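Escalation from tier 1.

The customer reports that the assembly of two entities below gives different structure tokens on two consecutive runs. Tier 1 could not reproduce it. I'm attaching the input and our single run for tier 2 to review.
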Amino acid sequence: MSEDSGKKLTMVTCSAPVNIAVIKYWGKRDEELILPINSSLSVTLHQDQLKTTTTVACSRSFQEDRIWLNGKEEDITQPRLQSCLREIRRLARKRRSDGEADVDTAGLSHKVHICSVNNFPTAAGLASSAAGYACLVYTLSRVMGVEGELSVVSRQGSGSACRSMYGGFVQWIMGQQGDGKDSLAQQVEPETHWPELRVLVLVVSAERKPVGSTSGMQTSVETSSLLKHRADSVVPARMKEMIEAVHKRDFTAFAELTMKDSNQFHATCLDTYPPIFYLNDVSRRVINLVHRYNRHYRETKVAYTFDAGPNAVIYTLQQNVEEFVQVVKHLFPPETNGGQFLKGLPVAPTTLSEELKQAIGMEPMVKGISYIISTKVHRHTHIHTYTHAYIHTYIHTYIHTYIHTYIHTYIHTYTHTHTHTHTHTHRQHPPGPLPVSCASLRVGVVEGFGERA
Amino acid sequence: IKMPEDSGKELTMVTCSAPVNIAVIKYWGKRDEELILPINSSLSVTLHQDQLKTTTTVACSRLFQEDRIWLNGKEEDITQPRLQSCLREIRRLARKRRSDGEADVDTAGLSHKVHICSVNNFPTAAGLASSAAGYACLVYTLSRVMGVEGELSVVSRQGSGSACRSMHGGFVQWIMGQQGDGKDSLAQQVEPETHWPELRVLVLVVSAERKPVGSTSGMQTSVETSILLKHRADSVVPARMKEMIEAVHKRDFTAFAELTMKDSNQFHATCLDTYPPIFYLNDVSRCVINLVHRYNRHYRETKVAYTFDAGPNAVIYTLQQNVEEFVQVVKHFFPPETNGGQFLKGLPVAPTTLSEELKQAIGMEPMVKGICYIISTKAGPGPRVVEDPSEHLLGSDGLPKESA
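Tier 1 run:
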């Protein structure tokens, strides 16, 4: 393709996952750098069901940085966005000054346009900031050619975003340093480690917007003496136990710790002044349901966890999914408005025994749950930041159709299995150097990123 | 009181009444199940018996074959361990007095059986912690019958922990004690009920859709499973007890109120940190909590405090000057059923109007039928003897009167 009238545009699109913590982060020791008072551990969910997609375009003809989130232009001067932009640019400049060749030196001073969408409704309260900032940072890094440890950057956008930089089971090590350089995410096990683990997100109708996490956890740190004790004395031991449970695929241990930690997090919210309530009557019913279900089988088959909102996230093993989904449908009968109650991975219907229904012994609560998303641990398709096509901007509209069909086919036929390496500094490198001059449109569509399995 | 002898039968009958108490620094968790020794101290306000009380008649006669007890009109199992603890302890103390040579003990009566009849002037279904009043009344009445004086809270404590605090009026602390035999785990009055006459109490009785987890098993599970509870008992409560006692001495309502709310929330936080978790607060409870915080925020002053026990009922503490407006606020945001039932009981509260500004500042949706009724009351005295013989709940045959 030939150069057009001197315009240069670099465009990269990436997607990033949501993660659900099983050992919770709640409370900062440093507001600006977003350093937590305790470590945390999460499970990365599959992007087929939940993901953020972000496109970053970089061009010398852009006047200023701009950002659009879910179709609406937002304020780019927001401090956390600025933190991420600043940090990525700083790392890019550092690479250049370190003499690493393949940095688009001109591009460093260019402005960026950022556009981001979720494939799930924001109103559902599904913690989109983690996926959002992870995606932003990752995409920026691809545009600016930054390699290496990136979770410290996304952490500065939103704490939990650092855990979305990896698939599978991820810990956010709290760190000790004041500069936050040792406060980063690390993969504990890849997503292939525990293929039977399944996740159900029960989206609960939220009647009132809950207290935002940032101010909520600030108030908790200021007022809850139980929180301090949790961070200092409880979480360190739980992190060890949880990591071991994950390594060993010990579902009982994993599940009990998950439930206890969710409850303890909410306990510290209640111990805040004024108290913060994220669990509502539906949440409590789900909790009671799980305990009764497990008690009936005399086995911890199902675990719940709740974040800063009423949605329940259920962890269970594959063999329990059908029955438990049926239990949820039975006790939280959906609206008959034709809306789809069960989304995501298909779940075959099944019948419940009378014995089970009686053992649970709860009254159905109509419309308590809006819908269920059935998903699992994030599994990579493949990861490439290769240049796929060189296309010029003057045929911009043409490009869009062209790229989409081209890339689409490309992705589907291009599947990889990669051997997993643990070190978080390991990043995929394109087989060849990236073009030095950003004389053409470079497109990469990344289905996943971070550690490969 | 000795009844006149009746054709050779000897019957001693005494009737007493005892109050309910509402803890502001909560008791939750035992270090000894049998002696009922707590893992932390607690502090409560004794409520006035005009609004809430247990009345108990104990009849003692050589003609009775066995101990018997009737509660709220129904005969109950006298062999229940905690009833037995109280009976045994009182009798032991009575025998001790006799052997110590104290004269006015009815030596014959010590071996006699007792009939006990007890009623509350509030519905049990309301979940208003009647066990404290009940055991306090039982122990106090037995002590009058058997001529036992002195420290009695250690006895009622063995019936129900919080019952020891109902042995005194006003502001009462239950000192947790250190000894294994529990002799130093007792209640002490911090200030009498006359100390703070402006302090008022509103009990908001909430419709309970499901019977909550009982306190005894609930606190046992908490002690076994909640790490936060241990920290609370060891590190938080001792300091709070000091602060609360000082707030009471100084009549510092702001400090009293904030500590009360924080301690209620922390208690419920430890319930949530229990495994499986225990929920006593429901959506109505949470609405009351939010209402109080918004009300206080509007005035930039802690005018009202809430506290919740092991159930959804809210107990509101406030000063007299705020009662009328706050009752109106409750009525506005929890509109009562229009079935003619009385929504406001107890001490009279004049109606008042709320400013639009206040309603908007609170900005909550009204929750119809969230609250069944309100009892308006205040701090009150400890247990007392009921002198009027027509109030005896047992007849001269030792059986419950028809009207009881």
